[in-house]
């Protein structure tokens, strides 16, 4: 019952917020296009529920042609602002509509990370990945790898609609506090540098 209600809640939330999400994504896509051309979106293979791979969508915030000796040159104009408020994650609402993600859940991970999991850690894949989650509101990239998994496992073991609402209410504070949202240099560690643009498909 929980999974059904959660799925309906995800769809209802997207439907209600589409009037804001769609124009925002279009505007930010134009910022990316004008700032650094194509590709507009960053696409990357991630692992979802029960180990099923899917393509995750983000707005591209890293330059296609950057100086590897100058990390400050990686971020496109407007990219820092998008990362600061998590706006680059908005295209993942498409992943939610496709049933690959939920609004709340552990962040979708790279295939290489799954290969490191033991049987206990693989339970992290028992639920749909999300845009925000328990680990994201409790330190995110300030957490060590194992500590982040432990927080995700705690969520898996305690998942409920009430907990999801609690995480949603905590998310704005985590975003505006901007602590641990990204790694050093305000860069997402899951986007390899400087080759991230090479992994992105042109859209």
Task: Report on the architecture of this protein.
With 203 residues, the protein is mostly helical. The chain has one domain. The protein has seven helices and four strands, in the order αββααβαβααα. The chain has helices spanning 2-36, 79-84, 92-97, 111-114, 145-158, 161-177, 196-199; strands at 41-47, 53-59, 102-104, 130-132. Strands 1-2 form a two-stranded antiparallel sheet. Strands 3-4 form a two-stranded parallel ribbon. Residues 183-187 and 191-203 have low confidence and may be disordered.
In short:
The protein has 203 residues and is mostly helical. It is built from seven helices and four strands.
Global shape: globular
- Biggest beta-sheet profile: 2 strands, antiparallel
**Termini separation:** 38 Å
Total helical elements: 7
Q: Strand order within the widest sheet?
A: 1-2
Give the tally of β-strands. Answer: 4
Topology diagram in text:
Elements: H1 2-36, E1 41-47, E2 53-59, H2 79-84, H3 92-97, E3 102-104, H4 111-114, E4 130-132, H5 145-158, H6 161-177, H7 196-199
Parallel strand pairs: 3-4
Antiparallel strand pairs: 1-2
Keywords:
203 residues, mainly alpha, two-stranded antiparallel sheet, two-stranded parallel sheet, 42% helix, disordered C terminus
